[in-house]
Amino acid sequence: MRVEHQLRAFKQVFENYDGAVPLHRFLFSYFKQHKQMGSSDRRWATRYIYSFFRLGKALIKEPQITRLAIADFLCNDTLSLIVETELPLLKNAITNSVKEKLDLVKKYFPEFQLRDVFHFQEELSAEIEHQDFYTSFFTQPDLFIRVKADYLEQLKKKLEEEGITAEAISATALALPNGTKLEKLVPDQRHYQVQDLSSQATGGLFKPQQWDYWWDCCAASGGKSLLLHSVEPTVQLLVSDVRENSLHNLEERFRDAGLKKYQKKVLDLLQNNDQDLHHYEFDGIILDAPCTGSGTWGRTPEMLYYFDTHKINYFSKLQKAIAANVVKYLKEGKPLIYITCSVFKAENEEVVEWLIKELPLKLERAEVIKGYNNNADTMFAARLIKL
Ligand SMILES: C[S@@+](CC[C@H](N)C(=O)[O-])C[C@H]1O[C@@H](n2cnc3c(N)ncnc32)[C@H](O)[C@@H]1O
Predict the structure, then answer these.
(1) Quick one: which of 112, 158, 270, 304 is 20 to 30 A from 182 by CA?
(2) What is the ipTM of this complex?
(3) Domain ranges in the chain?
(4) 219 lines ligand 1 (CB under 6 A)
(5) 3 state DSSP class of 275
(6) What's the pLDDT score for residue 220?
């Protein structure tokens, strides 16, 4: 396939995409509508467009074709026609490490600034190491699963028999190559859950007691509830979310995982829910808040290009309003676990500062979970105690 042909396919996809829906969803329907694109066209267009967005706004004044070649060079260790044609001097370095490749790019394109990859650096949480974080965007994050400890070795072996490299990260976490068709390979999901490594790490802050009554108030499809259940299976659970649909997925996942005893409600936490909840008192609340998701943009690099910073303020207000509405149902001396998958201080430290100032809460511990060091998402988690 000639390079012009590949480029035309890339351009068509780029020009038709405006960032309004996730890129993977857009590509799915785009390829469906453009059946003339063969599988090789689709594969190259996908590789090029994802690589292109991983460059964020770096070298924005360079021609698009040069930026695409640089992006493709940084993100891949196999040669493409675009690198061969546009960057012949760099092609022999295709298998070098990302850091070495970045040095080469800086040498040939002195205008290149790593910080332009993520041009929201002013907004970052204080603990984030900028260079490492920006560099992480050139590597696709892994797929992680949380596995019952006594099943890990068996599952690892089964995956390896299927030709999948599974790396044990802890006694209960496996890292797999992204795109592994896990549901097909291991349909029985009783012993494992797909869950990002950093998301798994938030469980360390839960510390439930036996027979506690907890509320997962933004439960979506129940990832944190399942994690809580794995930490302490006797915990009683109320799960809620504003989206009824995601609670249907939750039911399915709970069934597969054998979690039977729980109560579920559709609740909008921006409303007064006293009618539904006036007699409830919890031993712990997990608030896995709606957020920009900026800690997960390694999986959705189109956001580096299309994200509008105004949204940070919108989410930060939403997070505070939801927290204020749920804390009244927490028992004194018990924890509110505040979680985001954001790297922005306005959704992390600044929300925590507001919570301890405005609500009867004191901070026990807060941390950025630096997934960018582990090919994983980056998250923020805080444990606050009701006064
Ligand atoms: C980060 S997701 C939760 C992910 C989930 N806890 C997990 O581990 O998979 C945030 C959730 O907050 C919910 N949400 C957003 N606005 C809400 C509101 N006003 N009231 C209740 N839930 C809301 C969203 O529907 C979304 O499912």
Answers:
(1) 304
(2) 0.99
(3) 3-117, 143-194, 198-386
(4) yes
(5) helix
(6) 96
CATH architecture of the domain formed by 143-194: 2-Layer Sandwich (3.30)
CATH topology for 198-386 is Rossmann fold (3.40.50)
- Rounded to the nearest angstrom, the gap between the alpha carbon of residue 213 and the centroid of all alpha carbons in its chain is 28
CA dist 30 and 364 (Å) reads 48
Kindly state if the Cβ of 224 falls inside 6 Å of ligand 1: yes
Give bridge partners of residue 152 from the DSSP assignment.
none
Report the distance separating Cα 148 and Cα 165, nearest Å: 19
Beta strands in the chain (DSSP E): 143-147, 167-168, 173-176, 192-194, 213-216, 236-241, 263-266, 284-288, 335-340, 361-369, 379-386
CA dist., res. 168 & res. 160, Å (int): 12
* 151 contacts: CB under 8 Å, gap ≥ 6: 191, 192
Q: Which amino acid is at 192?
A: Y
Active site residue 218: no
β-bridge partners, 344: 124
The residue whose C-alpha atom lies closest to atom 4 belonging to ligand 1 is 220
Q: How far apart are CA 169 and CA 375, in angstroms?
A: 11
Side-chain-side CA neighbours of residue 91 (13 Å): 11
The whole-number average pLDDT for the span 4-9 is: 93
Residue-wise burial string across 356-377, b where 16 or more C-beta atoms lie within 10 A, e elsewhere = eeebebeeeebbbbbbbebbbb
Instruction: For residue 246, give the ligand 1 atom closest to its CA.
Output: 27
354 φ, ψ (degrees, to nearest 5)? -65, -40
pLDDT above 90: residue 183: no
The confidence score (pLDDT) of residue 187 equals 84
**Cα–Cα–Cα angle for 97, 98, 104, rounded to 5 degrees:** 95
